[in-house]
Fold these 4 entries.
Entry 1:
Amino acid sequence: MPELPEVETVVRDLKPLLAQKKIGSVKILGKKLRRPWNPLWTKSLEKQTLNKIHRRGKWIILSMKSGVQLLIHLGMTGQLCVFDQQEALKSHTNLVFKLSPGNAELRFRDVRRFGSADVFDTEKELQDFFAKRKLGPEPFNLSQEYWLSSLAKSSRNLKAFLLDQQNIVGVGNIYADESLHKSRLHPSRLACSLKPYEAILLSNSIEEILNAAIKNRGSTIRNYVGGAGLMGGYQDEFKAYGRTGLPCMNCGNSIQKIVLAGRSSHFCPNCQPKKPSKR
DNA sequence: ATAGGCGCCTGCTGGC
DNA sequence: TGCCAGCAGGCGCCTA
């Protein structure tokens, strides 16, 4: 589900709600997530004081003062929200962290269970976990040198390239389509075929699209809600994603859908020609 | 090493 | 109205 803007919104929402809180009890419910919960993790987290909440790509990191790290990925349908203890548990709630002082609790709920929760005893172990996955750079203030060279080295199409978190983190199916539409690049163009001006246009577009989506608190198609339970608003701004057969906002031609990298890809055949435009 | 295909899950929608 | 195939925001494993 959630891509960088949604994850960023969850983090921003949770920040004030989790500030100065301590984790009381940890409850594990329902079926396992992508990976099963290790019972030792419960002990590692209980009585720990939260220090910082941030994200790396689409991963949410809750760091404890002791150095223990709780790492959450929302998968396709994950929701990480604070509720009052009195509020009824929604179906498919997997994890409940009581917070003290106060009557609130942090709940993780993931209908499809593609999400995950992991605990690391130290910052170093968390970094090793990320290193194994070879996460690429954040999309903001990308080094131009890095971007041009990694595009040039890749024989994949742009859609697959953008979805690969080793090249750039945080971009998923929606924002890949939106960024390609904004840069007027066909999703099946090969990464290595981009001229430098096209490559720069693409990275600028990614940044602009993601920033605009963050401003709108992300996009809600079905399940996504922020850390305080609110839906996103950027779904109303889509220019390509999900607009199959509807007129392109730039030129009026109808938006096409094809499958690339196993995912549906929406683009305007007129604005995003397969051949590079001359310049 | 790299890239492509598919499996993992559940719920909703659209077409018959 | 009812059924069911197809599809959905992501990752990770396997294979070639």
Entry 2:
Amino acid sequence: MEGLTIAEAKAIQQLLAKRVRLDDDFPETLSTVCGLDCSYSRRGKDGRMIAGAVLLRFGSWERLESAFVEGETPFPYVPGLLSFRELPLLLEVLRRLERKADLYFVDGAGIAHPRRLGLASHLGVVADIPTIGVAKSRLCGSFDEPASSRGAESPLRDHDETIGTVLRTREAVKPLFVSPGQKVSLESASRLVLACCGRYRLPEPTRQAHRLVTERRVMWKEKGHDATY
DNA sequence: GCGACAG
DNA sequence: ATCTTGTCGC
Ligand SMILES: [Mg+2]
């Protein structure tokens, strides 16, 4: 994963994309869900990053467990190749969670990707877990703006195939770009993301994971450290 | 060749 | 993603 050329990375995606499954393969009644996210150092310019994971009880959003790990940033950000940058540390942080979740929410695209293998799908295939990709903006595909009410949605398409759902999770607020990662159907993906959204735009798992990896910045600042994550 | 482009 | 304060709108 470290010394990969862009061409090699794309070839790997084409191979792994064949292993993506879009049929629901997770408990019908969700008990726990997991949110994952990463943050990067800037001020320290040390090229380091942090991956975080939170395990929540579905519905109450009570935090049952959380974990984070720091490491070297292995790959630059290249649109379409985000997984080669964040996957290594995300896999590591998953190992640090004592329990497994029924479903995983990833900050990024699932199959709504040029080669149908965004970060959520890549993680799902490699770790063999059900995942949903929740992106805050569009990577690829075309769509009609969904109505302004909460729950409004419209298909995200690439030519003749539907690769995701543009979902409005809050009234009059920019919609989310939801797509199946692995072992989750197109319909279940948007339905479950909405089910995890309360007063905020982001689903609870993603929101809490983001808070976890971002609150560290405050911790370091308070300790007088020059590194910002 | 030009513009788009998850985080 | 990160750098940053105030400001506009529901
Ligand atoms: Mg992120």
Entry 3:
Amino acid sequence: MPRPARVSADRILDAAALEFSERGFAGARVDRIARRARVNKAMLYYHFSSKQGLYRVLLRRTFTLAAERIRAIAASPASPADKIDKIIAGFAAFIRERDFFPAIMLREVAEGGSRLDRETLLTLVAVPAAVAQIVQEGVARGTFRPINPLFAHLTMIAPIVFYLAAGSFLGEVGALLTHLQPLAADDFVHHMQDVMRRALAHDASPRQTS
Amino acid sequence: MPRPARVSADRILDAAALEFSERGFAGARVDRIARRARVNKAMLYYHFSSKQGLYRVLLRRTFTLAAERIRAIAASPASPADKIDKIIAGFAAFIRERDFFPAIMLREVAEGGSRLDRETLLTLVAVPAAVAQIVQEGVARGTFRPINPLFAHLTMIAPIVFYLAAGSFLGEVGALLTHLQPLAADDFVHHMQDVMRRALAHDASPRQTS
DNA sequence: GTCTATACTTCGATAGAC
DNA sequence: GTCTATCGAAGTATAGAC
């Protein structure tokens, strides 16, 4: 029984994810991707139109999966507060299943998304849209204070991406700074859930003056 | 009176900041940097040892200035809460004086700081160290709740970098999502100050159960 | 300090056999 | 579907005159 036909294409995508996340699009080398996938360059070009094309397929696939997962949470029957909790945990979990994701996302943000085609871009916008909808629902119900939904989205997503992108590097920094045990990712997720609960709660923190 | 000698070197650094922020180290082109600085390539190599060398000088200069500004705030006589406020505002102001900064920082994080030399890395670590010290002081005084200082640092810095890196791109996303007026950077700074005040405040947000 | 011309290398992509 | 060999463009860096 022969191996399934798409095996090598999948291996190429996996290798590309690694290479692009480590070096960025411009720094990635097609030769290295091929070698890592244990195919030769011609094979790569047989499956994918170009370096750009390979990159686009990878991003589209990944961002679509991420958006789906977030949308599923947003569509579930739960309180806005619970949904925010779950989105934070779900997003972190999604990343930890694919550690190539945060570095690529960071670089895309750095580039203003200029390398994303329109379709992928629209898919990706579904994530902040879902978060915004939840926030607005919470505000409408009176369980959240009034807050700019896009601000809320950035506040919860950015630290997670940073934290998980930094990975071992952050561990070194942390070792220089704290005497705490190695920073566990789960702890950070809980921290961010806590932060967002407080950020969205109807006023509880006392103002000093007036 | 002849022009000062370092004029062209400074122009090269300015051009390099732009080019590196738009394209990353690997995507940056020495020819383009030279053209943007209105010098020729040979001139660039007369002032700087290599593309790498130019990049390092740029980063060292920028990160040193950033660390100095944060340290000055940390050393000032103010309450921990005020210092956090000022660091958020000061960091955002620093970035807005150099819009090349966030994209470069994002890419460095994506790469795990592998392109920074040891000296620059140590300089940069001074920033989270300063924040951590303030947080710990607040915790010791009992004005902040116990919190991992490195978590606190990430929570406040990452969204600012994201927000200011995304710039116009975020504007488009925002236009698709909200009917609010264009997101002003000042509003976002206030938002993050608010978030951190709440995140650090001694418990005010009510827990649902138990 | 400044410029032109060019050496040398790397890299994306393809041709063409099997 | 898979491989070897190679082309041609682009890119970093330098030589050497002024």
Entry 4:
Amino acid sequence: MSRPPRARESVLDAFARILSDDGERAATMDATAREAGVSKGGLLYHFGSKEALEAGLMERMEALAIDDIEEIKRAPEGPVAAFMRTSIHTGSVLDQAIVAVSRLAQNGSAPAVEALRRVRVLWEEALRPLAKDETALQLILLVSDGLYFNNALTVGSVPGPQLDADDIAALIRLVEASTTPDAAAR
Amino acid sequence: MSRPPRARESVLDAFARILSDDGERAATMDATAREAGVSKGGLLYHFGSKEALEAGLMERMEALAIDDIEEIKRAPEGPVAAFMRTSIHTGSVLDQAIVAVSRLAQNGSAPAVEALRRVRVLWEEALRPLAKDETALQLILLVSDGLYFNNALTVGSVPGPQLDADDIAALIRLVEASTTPDAAAR
DNA sequence: GTCTATATACAGATAGAC
DNA sequence: GTCTATCTGTATATAGAC
């Protein structure tokens, strides 16, 4: 838990940004080094291979997800609403990390698929006590996945389908009404 | 509308299969030619560039989607249930084409993003008359997107989270109850 | 229409100077 | 710790034979 070197963090920032904004093909070690302001040799001092760089990103994503789940549990609007609200593109570091890792997963990285699945299980466990049954729980998670999928399609300068704040609020009310046992009693 | 050459179709089959099963990085022109049983030169006779190959795949996806929507409209179980059921991984050619194009979209292909958006609009238009309001319509589409996202994460031999037939049936009932005006009257 | 051979560019990774 | 220079493999694309 010692503070990590600044250059190492800059490299991870750059790698996540390029993966999420421009896609996996663009996220070369060369482009990552340039964006981070270091040379390719400098990058390779901190991450000895592309695989190691990807592993570093996944580790960061899981740490951010664990923090996020603790925040969501204490959210005044309730965990379900907070979870859904943070599933739209907020531009948060966690958001970016999840989209970045999902790009790796979709290009054949088994460790990335496993890391995403672990995070999904953490969310399931946090939200299960609030859902009226397993089907309701899956509905909440699938809507969140759908929001992420739409975020993830937005590459380069072409925006995907967008929902505004009112749309999201209405969607959260509908999902809560369908999935939580005491929705009518609120 | 003349019948397309067999070799051309084989190439598109192979390209879609590799994109969907192994990811964008694996879907090289070399691997596609090998899988289709033609040489690289042979492939390049039908598709003069990678861009042309991608465009060919998108055209096929949109044609399949248009057919699929007509089928869904006439489904005995109702369009919403039929739409959701075909959103899980059925291994259909349309399924494979959509996952394949979404891999291109997530690697920076603007035409792929636009093609997927056009298909999404077709689904919206087909399902809108059945949803009680716009929020309900978006819920249906987002759950479908979520199912696709989970399919899409399944690369190589690592399976993503899976729902069995009973889970899907329960999910369809819950979504229909939340989104269609006459659900109680059934 | 389909093939082989080849040109050009760029990826990941190594060696070794500073 | 960070750099430059370089090796090796592989991607897209072209040229031209059959």
